[in-house]
């Protein structure tokens, strides 16, 4: 059994036959990506394989690397997160998409579902919800948090 840091739940075994959960981070703010990477890599079974600063770059990385999970912001230049989610479904169909956004409306969460997202977390709750969301996706379960969502 692989050791894990800071008393987190047992590390997931990735999606399918992967031993490591390979994650792509797509957000237009470098500080956000850095913070997310720090959170993600607290679990030794998870690896950030690439980062992208806009949707177009995110799509290129998803096509090239075929990650297990792409953590995607909605509001980005060159291609927004909903467009990116649709594009990833076509070019990297095994990649799960977790929307991580400031958009806290029920309507936007439904738009993300309609685009094909596998999960939705509000950035202000990332500290408590990102890791459970990634774990759920690694186990082929959706994760749509209502924490912080306005009606």
Quick description:
With 151 residues, this protein is of the alpha/beta class. It contains five helices and six strands; from the N terminus they run E-H-E-H-E-H-E-H-E-H-E.
Please provide a written account of the structure.
By secondary structure, the chain is an alpha/beta fold. The chain has one domain (21-144): Rossmann fold (3-Layer(aba) Sandwich). The protein has 5 helices and 6 strands; from the N terminus they run E-H-E-H-E-H-E-H-E-H-E. The protein has helices at 30-40, 55-65, 81-91, 106-115, 126-138, and strands spanning 21-26, 46-52, 69-72, 96-101, 119-122, 143-144. A 6-stranded parallel beta sheet has the order 2-1-3-4-5-6, sandwiched between helices. Helix 5 links the parallel strand 5 and strand 6. Helix 2 (55-65) packs parallel to helix 3 (81-91). The longest helix has 13 residues, at 126-138. The chain is globular. Residues 1-14 have low confidence and may be disordered.
Please summarize the sheet with the most strands.
6 strands, parallel
So what's the CATH class?
Alpha Beta
- Find the CATH superfamily: Response regulator
Number of strands: 6
CATH topology: Rossmann fold
Structural domain tally: 1
Number of helices: 5
Helix and strand sequence: EHEHEHEHEHE
Distance between the termini: 43 Å
SSE class: alpha/beta
- Please list the strands of the largest sheet in the order they lie side by side: 2-1-3-4-5-6
Radius of gyration: 14 Å
- Identify the CATH architecture: 3-Layer(aba) Sandwich
Shape: globular
Q: Which regions are unreliable across 5 or more consecutive residues at pLDDT < 50?
A: 1-14
Overall average residue pLDDT: 87
Q: Estimate the strand proportion.
A: 15-25%
Helix content: 25-40%
């Amino acid at each position: 059994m692989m050791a894990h840091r800071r008393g987190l739940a047992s590390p997931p075994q990735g999606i399918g036959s992967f031993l490591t959960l390979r994650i792509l981070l797509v957000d237009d703010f470098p500080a956000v990506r850095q913070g997310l990477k720090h959170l993600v890599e607290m679990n030794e079974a998870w690896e950030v394989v690439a980062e992208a600063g806009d949707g177009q770059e995110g799509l290129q990385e998803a096509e090239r690397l075929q990650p297990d999970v792409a953590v995607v912001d909605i509001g980005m230049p060159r291609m927004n997160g909903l467009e990116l989610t649709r594009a990833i479904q076509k070019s990297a169909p095994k990649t799960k998409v977790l929307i991580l956004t400031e958009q806290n409306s029920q309507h936007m969460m439904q738009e993300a579902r309609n685009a094909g997202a596998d999960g939705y977390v509000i950035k202000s709750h990332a500290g408590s919800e990102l890791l459970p969301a990634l774990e759920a996706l690694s186990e082929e379960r959706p994760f749509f948090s209502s924490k912080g969502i306005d009606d």
